[in-house]
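Session log. Operator J.P. requested a structure for one protein chain; no other inputs attached. Running the standard single-chain path with token output.
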Amino acid sequence: MFELLGIPPQVLMGQLLLGLINGSFYAVLSLGLAVIFGLLNIINFAHGALYMAGAFVAWMLLNYLGIGYWPALILAPLVVGTLGVILERTMLSRLYHLDHLYGLLLTFGLALIIQGLFRNYYGISGLAYQIPDVLSGGQNLGFMFLPNYRAWVVVASIVVCLGTWFMIEKTRLGAYLRAATENPTLVGAFGVNVPLMIMMTYGFGVALAGFAGVLAAPIYSVNPIMGEQLIIVVFAVVVIGGMGSIMGAIITGYVLGIVEGLTRVIYPEGSAVVIFVIMAIVLMIKPEGLFGRPV
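Structure written below.
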């Protein structure tokens, strides 16, 4: 089919790979948003800024402390998650009984503040972050050249996404989390510290954004607007998959990344809007999203 359209196989596979890599970031970021919304009912507009913060923390660990990529892959999400815990305890916890709009406005304001702080100190020029030596180079697959680091990004994102899904859907801790969203008073009566659980859930959700930021740092330049450019697309992914649906966020993230890559081959002008067109169609047909539950 693509040969009839005059599209070389190398170009097609290259764009599919790029789409799969983008889909990996969409999946991890939308997963964090889905965890936070599904369990805490907060529309976390600061997610993109925290993704950017994860990339900057990795960059600062390397350039200021000499700590390389592999430790940063653990430390940066912990730092971002700790920041999320502080934000949840000091600000977001006061909004749980109010309309969702208040949480959205607060997190939007926090995103602007975090982005402004990094822009003030580092400007808007991209900062390079080196690929670890063990993941440098690539593999010649015959029809295309596959960089090792990009293959690692796909594998790491799949492992993290499936591990998160298993924890929330198949473990006792996940059962407590889901029960606490439905009836926190009853769960608290069983001796579960519900406020602590909510705090750690938000911290974990934003730690996923920090993890994605570390993965993105060697591929994209580390700059204060990297989250701003991505968060709108990720919100569209979450809406298409279904607000709060864990597996919906994962599957939709990867699929839409691939669709976006195919669109770049077939109709490049439409690649920037194809996800939003799909979102509009899904909202007209199934407003709760592909994997969401009817309200």
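Operator note: The two ends are 41 Å apart (CA to CA).
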